[in-house]
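Fold it.
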Amino acid sequence: MAKPNLNPVPQAEKAMSKSKLQAADCTATSFVDRCREFAEQGTGDEFGLSGEAIEAFRRDVVPRLMLIQSERLQEAASHFRLSTADETDFLNSLLTQSLSENADHLERLRIRRRVDQAQMLEFLGATARRLGELWEEDEGSFAEVSVALCRLHHFLRELSEEADLGRMVQNGSRMPSILFANAEGEQHIFGVMVAAEIFRRDGWAVSCSPGADNEALCGEIAAQSFDVVGLSVSQVELLPALERQCATLRAVSRNPDLVIIAGGLAAETAQGDPASIGVDAIVGSKDNPTAIGRHLLAIPACAC
């Protein structure tokens, strides 16, 4: 009777090193996939393995390889996300370096992280929010914050593509329309511009009037039918005025089914009860704004 192999794992690993599954000849992912395929389908006869060795390979070797693979994939994925540390570094660049150095910094980020334009838009918006926090906490002077914000506007314009506003039909249906503006009394406009660009890229017909007062805004929606109005509000003390503003906008709107959404730090404080500030939905910083807009209008996601 053959003496049982008391430690079959080394035997299995040694046999695998002689197999066709050479790690040097394939990527880590394909190597692990082939190991798993061998464990599921192999009999061990090809390599002279005992049943114990095959079972040990399935039990001990493949799970370890899969764990290593998962950890490496997660590590690789982290290189393709813009982090809070990236925001801090770019914010420091905006406040302390020249415009050309800011542009170089941003380009290095894009290349290193391999992010697309939509992610860069979100990144610029997040950086603008950080600038607002510096101002509110008196950690940056008016001049510093103003210059940095102007530079963010510059990069937003560079990143933005010209909208094809003449294309009023998309996939056989009319493009949804949205008008962006500040809530009455709100002076921060960068968030509105970023939101407008995000919706434009999603296939919406976008109008943007960040500096319009309430009278001008009422004139716009009375003259032209919009599916949605998006308002930005960052100051909590403006919320009562926002509720009144929304009632006025609905009263004069050319579209009797006008949908109003709100975003900004102050709006998020009422996220659980949007009706309390007169809107149909509140878009938080981590929400998908275009998905919320399409859901409210009951229209499918953009195929563009």
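The longest helix spans residues 51-78.
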